[in-house]
Amino acid sequence: MGKYIIAGNWKMNKLPSETCAYVKEVAAATAGAQCEVVCCTPFTNLAEAVKGAQGTHVSIGAENLHFEDKGAYTGEVSADMLLDLGVKYVIIGHSERRQYFAETDETVNLKVRKALEKGLIPILCVGESLEQREAGITMDLITIQIKKAFAGISADDAAKVVIAYEPIWAIGTGKTATAEQAEEVCGAIRGVLAGLYDESTAKAVTIQYGGSMNAGNAAELLTKPNIDGGLIGGASLKSADFAKIVEAAK
Ligand code: 13P
Question: Of 63, 67, 68, whose CA–CA distance to 91 is shortest?
Fold first, then answer.
């Protein structure tokens, strides 16, 4: 429904010195891509990543940003700093940031709004824990995450947001959600967006699946009508594996 986007989330992996060559490798390996291809890298690697992506179809994303424009926020990075480097996307609200760095639905909302105001494309992450899934509250939780993240955002801006549904129990565990489980939640997310906005806005939003997505399971996940791409952790660190996922997004 939305535009197909396959994005790698490198997390805290790869050195700045190996980044330019690796992004070039990704560009070469995905030369026939029929979808948008994105590498999201640590802040320190972004300048090299942009250099590697120059003149190719690959776009570069950051893994976080701060919601203020500038000022006394030691250790933080602003939207303008990312834009100045040539960054196009920014991951917001990844479960690892919610879990380890006290990211809340409120800060996620502020960051999504700042990204949109500045012209960065947010990749907004939502997802439930195993405990929440087993308690049967997956959709309640995700509905709250989506409603809070989109608070104060117009329909025009909402259509630009990429949502990544990442069940926490599937991240880095090798335990992928079945295509049916992923489709059920991604379809429900589109329903929440239709309720908040309208059908055409809901259809315009790219909804990715993330969580142990790999060369072997990508094709099945990507055939589902409400799954418009993937946010890839481990498998984005090897260009051949990542390229197979991009290949599956036809
Ligand atoms: P893995 O693909 O390593 O499970 O990570 C998924 C993820 O968290 C992407 O943001």
Answer: 63
Tokens of residue 43, six digits: 């802040």
The whole-angstrom separation of Cα 37 and Cα 4 is 9
Query: Does 212 sit in the ligand 1 pocket, CB within 6 Å?
Result: yes
Q: What residues are paired with 236 via a beta bridge? A: none
Length of the chain: 250
CB 76 within 8 A of CB 103: no
Has 94 been annotated as catalytic?
A: yes
Summarize pLDDT for 227-244 with one digit per residue, the tens: 999 999 999 999 999 999
Choice among 63, 103, 166, 247 that is catalytic: 166
Select from 113, 124, 140, 128 the least CA-distant residue to 181: 128
Q: What is the mean pLDDT of the chain?
A: 97
Is CATH 3.20.20.70 correct for 5-248?
yes
Q: What local confidence, expressed as pLDDT, does residue 127 receive? A: 98
Crossing angle (nearest 10°) for helices 46-53 and 16-29 = 30
pTM higher than 0.90: yes
Q: What is the DSSP letter of 159?
A: T
Percent of the residues in the chain that have a pLDDT greater than 70, as a whole number: 100
The DSSP bridge partners found for residue 37 are: 6, 58
- 105, 58, 12, 16: which is closest to 239 by C-alpha? 58
**Domain layout of the chain by residue ranges:** 5-248
* pLDDT, tens only, 71-102: 999 999 999 999 999 999 999 999 999 999 99
Active-site hit among 36, 66, 94, 183: 94
